[in-house]
Specification:
The protein is an alpha/beta fold and about 160 residues long. The protein contains 5 helices and 10 strands; from the N terminus they run αβαβββαβαβββαββ. It is about 30% helix and about 25% strand. 5'-O-(N-(L-cysteinyl)-sulfamoyl)adenosine binds next to helix 2, strand 2 and strand 7.
Length: about 160
């Protein structure tokens, strides 16, 4: 079985996106870990969070500085939502929590992106494993994930 990083590289290539993941032996499992490893603002870290509605799974690309306001995200998705179970994240995306990348998933999910991420020139997202991240311009991230920009953050 290829590692999450190898699978993410292949998936990004298939989407036509050039990515340059970096491995950080100290680990990037949480946004705080990732910001410390990369040496960037925690707000520049992209949390790729999967939520469940009664009918589907959705992806919320959220700034590491923010929490998801589930009432507001529920309004955007049109249904009540809650955080997806870890097993659902793995089976839908093909990646484990802590390394879930923002695109290149087994089953592409309808996606929203936290507008706060758009304020940065570069943001960093997980590259398929809990010890890797890659930089990307937020507009390219939104385009590749086919994410709608929204204000669903609890700051
Ligand atoms: N690699 C880092 C930075 S890119 C990362 O993936 N961060 S993350 O925030 O996107 O992934 C961890 C998130 O997974 C946590 O914020 C939490 O919302 C979620 N999570 C952690 N444990 C569980 C669980 N048991 N079930 C569902 N979600 C969980």
């Amino acid at each position: 079985m290829a590692s999450g990083l190898e699978r993410f590289r292949a998936a990004a290539e298939e989407l036509g996106v050039s990515v340059a993941p970096v491995r950080y032996p100290a680990g990037t499992r949480t946004a705080a870990d990732a910001a410390a490893a990369v040496g960037c603002d925690v707000g520049q870290i992209v949390k790729s969070l999967v939520f469940a509605t009664p009918t589907r799974l959705v992806l919320a690309l959220t700034s590491g500085a923010n929490q998801v306001d589930t009432d507001r995200l529920g309004e955007l998705t049109g249904e009540k939502i809650s955080l997806a179970a870890a097993e659902a994240v793995r089976s839908a995306t093909g990646y484990a929590i802590g390394g879930t990348p923002p695109f290149g998933h087994l089953n592409p999910l309808p996606a929203w992106i936290d507008q706060d991420l758009l304020a940065y020139d570069t943001v960093w997202a997980a590259a398929g494993t809990p010890d890797s991240c890659f930089p990307i311009a937020p507009a390219q991230l939104a385009a590749t994930a086919e994410a709608l920009v929204g204000d669903f953050a609890r700051r």
